[in-house]
Amino acid sequence: MTLHVNSEQETLDLAALLATLLEPKDVLLLEGNLGAGKTTFTKGIAKGLGIETVIKSPTYTLIREYTKGKLPLYHMDVYRLEDVGGDDLGFDEYIYGNGVSVIEWATFIQDELPDSYLTIKLEPTGEFFEGRNITFEPTGEHYEQLVEKFQKQASEEGLI
Are the beta carbons of 37 and 8 closer than 8 angstroms? Predict the structure, then answer.
């Protein structure tokens, strides 16, 4: 499923709606070039989980934990692991923990990922990148059902 958003606010609103459907151990993989909106999408997830802390990109810290919400949010940016991978860094403690894991650049820790997850691709559009195409690619039955629920609810709320 691919949706088009015209603003940062629409991105935040869609992500916040998705967050209301998430459960512990859910894994979201965010893909997109630098500036595609991955951190903005994560801010929307945090909002939907009731997390009021300022969300920052974990580019230099690898993992940021936000625990004051409906569910903990583990925001990971593993770009810096391109040459070394994620062995022995304890990603499984987050991925199989009691929160939601949002992982940017997950291709660099492919071996650490569970069998099922939701890939979300963000692609800027327009001359000044004001819009985004957001593609949801579920892997596994749980995430197929999640995307179906999300699409239905987003339609009912007039977001798509």
Answer: yes
Angstrom distances, CA of residue 62 to CA of 2, 56, 67, 103, 142: 28, 11, 16, 10, 27
Quote the tokens at residue 146.
Answer: 């999640």
Average pLDDT over residues 7-28: 95
Tokens of 55: 């969300």
Distance CA 4, CA 138 (A): 18
Token reading at 50: 């009731």
Higher-pLDDT residue of 127 and 65 is 65
Residue 35 · residue 129 · CB < 8 Å: yes
* Each residue's pLDDT tens digit, 79-121: 655 444 444 556 778 888 899 999 987 876 787 889 999 999 9
Other C-beta atoms closer than 10 Å to the C-beta of 130 total 12
Cα 1 versus chain centre, distance: 15
Cα separation, 136 vs 124, in Å, equals 15
Tokens matching residue 19: 């967050």
pTM: 0.89
Instruction: Answer whether 94's CB lies under 8 Å from 24's CB.
Output: no
Which residues, at least 6 apart from 4, have a Cβ–Cβ distance to it below 8 Å? 125, 131, 132, 133, 134
